[in-house]
Amino acid sequence: MADAEHVAGQSELATRVIVGLALVVVAVGALWFGGFALWALASALALISIREWGGLVGADRLRVTVALAIAAAVMICAAPAYWDTDRSTVALLLITCLLLTLVPQCGGLALGLAYTGTASIALLFLREQPHGFGLALWALGLVWATDIGAYFIGRSIGGPKLAPTISPNKTWAGLIGGMFAAIVAGGVVAYLAQFPAIAFVLAAPLAVIAQGGDLLESWMKRRAGVKDSGRLLPGHGGALDRLDGALPVLIIVAALIANGNF
After folding, report:
1. Helix 172-193 to helix 132-157 angle, to the nearest 10 degrees?
2. Host domain of residue 42
3. Residue 233, beta-bridge partner list
């Protein structure tokens, strides 16, 4: 029985690694090309994430459909050939989300629409900046490094739990390992792209924020009584399971850029 469990665990890890590498290749490719390719990927992920968020908050099909229609309209406005990805696009999204909260039982769905939609627009905004490829890669690379560092260091060292009632597998050692990995990966990208010194300073705090996004989704899944937000990605679960840490990081980095603090 132990051997069978070990083999199953190794197989799951292999699937997780292969799918994870494929996701990185797709993401980096879309970042490199930018424009329509990145917009199409960001829009698809936004719609899938909102659908999964609706499932986590128990929204019915009609309300989820309305949220998807709003998201699609906003992402069309954010298309490179149509409008732009600046404050006006985010304002349009947030105003619509506020109106959605007036609909009974739509508060949680409106929050998810604002959260995932703003992050999608933030990614497009970052890519449009000077040195946008490096900037977007730096932000996402921090999250990827945090996840990898937290996973392997946490499993290797173990120790006190970070939030046992929310996510029993996360440890303080994993958090520190994730922060260290983010500092290294973020530092390499920041050095190659010749980013200002603040990029090196922000790596560790953003790693903590990424873990906070992960814990938020874990809390939502625990409330909903599910293991994963969806079944889109073998070994990883749903889109939200992969994007949970990236969402708040993208929003914060885009806000810093927009306000001239980076």
Report:
1. 150
2. 34-128
3. 237
